[in-house]
Amino acid sequence: MDRLPPLRLLATFETVTRLGTMREASARLNVTLPAVSQALKSLEEHAGAELFDRSTRPARLTDAGEILARATREGLGQIASALEDIRAMHGQEERHVTVACTLGMATYWLMPRLHDFYAANPEITVNVQAPATDLPNLAPGIDIAVRYGTGGWREGQTLKLFDEIICPVGTPALIARLQAEGVGLDRAHLIHVRSPLAQHWAGWVDYLAARGIERARLSGQSLNNYVQATQAAQEGRGLMLGWRSITEGVVSDGALAKWPEGAVDFGTAYYVTSATRLSESGQCFLDWLTGQARIVRETDA
Length: 301
Description:
Blueprint: H1 7-19, H2 22-29, H3 33-47, E1 52-53, E2 60-61, H4 63-89, E3 96-100, H5 103-120, E4 125-129, E5 144-149, E6 157-163, E7 166-170, H6 172-181, E8 190-193, H7 204-211, E9 220-223, H8 226-234, E10 239-243, H9 244-252, E11 257-258, E12 269-274, H10 280-300
Parallel strand pairs: 3-4, 3-5, 8-9, 8-10
Antiparallel strand pairs: 1-2, 5-12, 6-12, 7-10, 7-11
């Protein structure tokens, strides 16, 4: 660390390079002009090179000065970001809630509803994380995990949000055409979600077996997540397996439609697991989340 100059020298240097002149920097830093000049000279001595070409007015950065200016901006920027993170973790954590959920759940169910939460709680920030594994856990730094399955998680406290229902969906035009042509699920073009990280979700094989539908081939377009699959379905490229948490909104908007009498309940649901000790903001978000799930359940009634 003794290779680094005092931080005040770097801060002065960054201010000068950002504002363009030593005079403006002295005013911003509330120090005298000679103090700024001396700080820059001390920094040059430490660097072993001239940082400014003083033959011009105002002085311009030398090549060495450009290198240090770039590094100083990046370094001080990282320090500022780190301090923001620390403030969020200590002393201000009461106003932050971190939620982990699947990418599809975040994109199509949670994020579209968050404006309602912010309208009532503008002072609380909700950080949403979608782990690449598609299996959200109540890990350190995560206050609440919203996840799909059959329950039985042991950490924290778990509540059931709503039952998950599966039903093929496609554009209204595509479904109308298939119905008019007498094409059923045994021959319709399918959109698959196939990923080593999403094997806990039922696929077309499971769905067709549950419905007792035989199909010679399961060929069709394969994608690795439900966000891509939903986009492909909206473009009319085939039928995808729609999940309430993912496609209910676009079905309500009319962008997609459900296959007639195609719903199947696999006995799975969405659950929310929360830390045993939640902050006041965390409890506020949990109460709101369970309220949103209650609306979903009441729609079924």
